[in-house]
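Journal club prep — side note

Before the paper discussion, L.F. wants everyone to see what a predicted structure for a comparable chain looks like in C-alpha cell form. Sequence:
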Amino acid sequence: MIRKTLKFFAVYTIIFGISFSNIPFSVLSSALDSYITGHNIVDTAWHLSKNENVVDTFTTHRNLVEKIKIHEAQAAIIAQYTGGLLVYADDTVGTPKYKTFDDTTGFGVEQSASSVGASAINWVRVAASPTTDQWIIATRDAANVIKAQVCTGVDGGVSCGAPTTITATAGTHGFRNFDVAYEQTSGDALLVYGTATADELRKIEWTGGAWTLDAAITTTRTTGTVEWVELTSRSASNQVGIAYSDTNDDVSAYRWDGTTAANEATAAITATAPTGDVRKMDVSFEGTSGDMFVATYLTGAGTLAYGTLVGTTWTIATATGVDNLCQYLDLQEPNPSDDDIAISCTGAAATSNPSEGSEWSGSGSVDGAAADDVVQNWAANYQLSAVAYVSATYYAAGVISNGTATDDIDWWTMNSAGTMTDQAVNVRTRGAARFIDLFDYPSLDKTLLLTADANSDLWADTWDGTTPSATIWVDRTSGGALEAALSIATKDVVDFAFRLSPPPANTTLGNGTNPGNTTIAPGAAATDLDNFSLVTSAGADTVTAVTVTLGPAGAFNNIGQADITNGANTAQCTAITNPASNTLSFTGCSIPVSTTATDFKVRITPKTHANMAVPP
C-alpha cells in the first residue's frame, strides 16, 4: 500500500477589501474576532490501494478554526446634533489635537489634525458644515500665521487635509483677529481675518473644495489694525454676521450675504470701546425676526453700545440700563423661538472685577440684576463668562468664573420673560477658570460647558435643562481633565462644534450565518465556504470589489473556481478560476446593500482529481 501523507488545510478567510461605489468607506468593526468551527474546505487524505483498480477516497479530516477579522475603515459616526468635534492645542508644538464627542459615550481618544508649523498655537476656531461631513479648523500661532485645514469624518475618525496659509502677517498684537463660519444653506464657508496692515480686513471663501476669492473688505468706519473678529451664521440662510474691533478700540460690522460683505454699519458701533486686551464685542441674530445685533460696551461707563440691522437699515445707539462696567462680552446664539438675546459680560479690573447679565429684548436692553456678580481678577485675554440658549423654559444659561471659588460653576438662568435667577454653585476641584465657553445642543434642551483653567487643564460639563440645583451639572471628564497640558494658559486654544450635517450612510460588514460542515471530494460541485453580511445605515449602496484571503500557504492549489454569490447562489462578482495565490481579488462585483442585513456567500469548487497536485 502506498499511503499518501495526511494534510490538514485550515482556511482563514479574511474579508477586508471592499470598495464602495457611492459613499465613503463604512464602519467595518475594528476589533471583532469571530471564531467559527469547521467550514467547507478541501482537506485531503488519500488512501491508495496497490491494486490497479485504485479507489480514491476524499474525506474531511479537520477540526478547523476560521477567524474573520473585520477591519475598520472609519471610526464610529459622529452623531448629528448630539455629537461634535473638540479641537485644542497642547504641548505638541504646532499640531492641533481633537477628540470626537458623543452625548451618550462622552469624548473619544485624542487624535492629531495636520501640523500647522513649528510655532506654538495661540488661538483655535472650529466650524461644522451644515451640509456635508466636514469641519474647518483655523489657527493662529505665535509667529502670527493664520492657517486653515478642512477635515472630514473618515480615516480613523477625522482626516484633515494640508493646512492653507491664510496670512503670514496677522499682526504682532497676538489677538484673535480671525474667525470662520459656514453659510447654513449653501455649505460654503467664510473666513474673515485681519493683517498687520492698518485698517485691513479681509475675507476668503471655502467653496467648491478650495480656498478662493481672497480679497479686502472695504472699511470706512475704522482706522486701526484689526485685533478681534467675530462671526456668526444665521439659521436657514447664507447670511453671516461680521463684527470686529481694532487697535483704536473702534467697533464696526457687516452682514455677509453669501456673495459679498455687504451692509457695512452706517457708523462705527462705537469709537470708544473698552481698552482692555479682550474680545470686546460680539454679533448674533434675533431668532424670529432674523435681524442682526452687534453689541459692545463704552469705555469707563456702564453703557451698552449696539447696532441693529433690520433689512438693510442700521440703527446705532446706546443703552444705559446696565449698571456694571464691562469689557469682555458674549452674546447668546440665536434663540429659535424668540428675539431675546442674553448678554453676559465681565470687566477687566485687577480687583473687585464685576460681571453683568442682561438681555436684548428685541427692542432694548434690560438689566438682569440677579445675574450681576464679582468674578476673578482679570488679566489679558481672559474670557471669564459665557452664555447660551437652553430651552423654551430657560431662554439662557450664563456661567462665570466666581471671584472667590474660581474653579466652581457659578451660573444664572433667564426665563422667557427675561427674568434672571442666580443659581446654586456647582462645586468643582480644579484650577481657576480662565476661558469659559458654552455650546447649546442643536436638538436637545441641553448645553455643554468647556473650561480651560490656570493649570492649562481642560474640563467639560453638561446641564440637561432640568431643575437647577447645586449638583445638576454633570462632569464629562470622568474625574480627570480632558487635557492636562494646553499649549498656553493665557489664550483660548480650545473650541468645539456640534455636528450639523446628517452623517453619511455606513455600510457594515458582518459575519453572516455561516454554513455547517460537509464532506466533499475532488471534482465535487460548488460548495459554501463562508458567509458574510452587509447592511447600510441609510439609503442603498453597492459593493464593487471583494478580497478574500485563504490560508495556510498553498490552499489555493485545491480550488478550481471561487465565487461570491447571493443566497440563491447567483453570482455577484466575476468568478476566479484556478487561483494563483491565496489572495482572491474579486472584481466586476455588483453586490446590492440595503438597510436590511443580507447574507452573501464565498463558494468554492474543488479541482478534479486529475487536476490536483500529486500528494507527496
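L.F.'s comment for the group: The CA atoms of residues 11 and 551 lie 5 Å apart. Keep this in mind when we get to the figures.
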